[in-house]
Amino acid sequence: MTGRSQLMLMAEDKELELGLQAYQETTTAEPASTNQRYIEMVNRVGQRIAAAADRPDYQWEFRVIASPQQNAFCLPGGKVAVYEGILPVCDNEAGLAVVMSHEVAHALARHGGERMSHQMVVSGAQTAVDYVTRKRDEREREWVMKAYGLGTQYGFVLPYSRKHESEADSMGLMLMAKAGYDPTEAVRFWQRFATAKDQPAPPEFLSTHPADERRSAELAELLTEARPIYEAAPQKFGLGEPIMLMGTAPPVAQMPTPPAQGAPPTAASFNAFPQHPPIWQ
């Protein structure tokens, strides 16, 4: 999938098993959203991305978590969760597609399995001791939580490497374009998100997915490859529906027209994030 050699000490079926366990644990511990519009939007965007991913062996699930955390994740097998707090930053369906396709790309590329393999090598002798003393399940649980960016709520963070982030950016951009969402929104999304990194309580998503000018510039360069994929998509949704803080939206006929390709972002596209209340209160 990545086109490069990867250190992979864990079989994919084991990775899928651990991913399902982590998903069930997280979604059991976190309250499900009751915002029907958010639920419908996440499922709609998710199903389109799943179709573009072309992994019929994945048992796709999409969950909205009722939490102000600005975070999202995709575990092996297509287990996707989006926290309510990140939706205002997404601004619209295309922004949501940026987040979801990026997380799906990490799973498709088996970045978590690669990260767990590195953890296995680093932990070495301690891993052997844990297996003998029946602490295997506990250690594997910690590995998968770290590997897929779920560590923030457990007190530890393992940021994705620059290589993994670049791969997920590229794969995710092509994925959202194939799903019919305007890929230029990816650049605008990361520009919006980058403004949050200097806040007293930066979003959880930034702890594992650093945002900077280099990232936006690299995504802008990738648009030359993504635009033809978007133009060839069977259905094009542009920016899709806007995301409103109160869960309401204007009629479809009143929705703003997507900007022309290459056009600079408007001030309106940067307004959602400052309106959202601080996290970790």
Task: Spell out the key features of this protein.
281 residues, mainly alpha, 3-stranded mixed beta sheet, 12 helices, 52% helix, disordered C terminus
Rg value: 18 Å
* β-sheet strand percentage: under 5%
Placed side by side, the strands forming the largest sheet appear as: 1-3-2
What is the average of the pLDDT values?
74
Q: What's the helical proportion of residues?
A: 40-55%
How many strands appear in the DSSP assignment?
A: 3
End-to-end distance, in Å? 40 Å
Which H/E pattern describes the elements? HHEEEHHHHHHHHHH
Number of domains: 1
Helices, by number, come to 12
Shape: globular
**Subunit arrangement of the protein:** single chain
Low-confidence stretches: 152-157, 246-259, 264-281
- The secondary structure category is mainly alpha
Largest sheet: 3 strands, mixed
Task: Chart the SSEs and their pairings.
Elements: H1 12-29, H2 36-53, E1 61-65, E2 72-75, E3 79-83, H3 87-90, H4 93-108, H5 111-123, H6 125-132, H7 136-147, H8 162-178, H9 184-194, H10 204-208, H11 213-231, H12 272-275
Parallel strand pairs: 1-3
Antiparallel strand pairs: 2-3
Provide structural commentary:
This protein has 281 residues and is mainly alpha-helical. The chain has one domain (12-246). The protein contains 12 helices and 3 strands. Strands 1-3-2 form a 3-stranded mixed β-sheet. Strand 2 and strand 3 (79-83) form a beta hairpin. Helix 4 crosses helix 8 (162-178), helix 5 (111-123) crosses helix 7 (136-147) and helix 9 runs antiparallel to helix 11. Residues 152-157, 246-259 and 264-281 have low confidence and may be disordered.
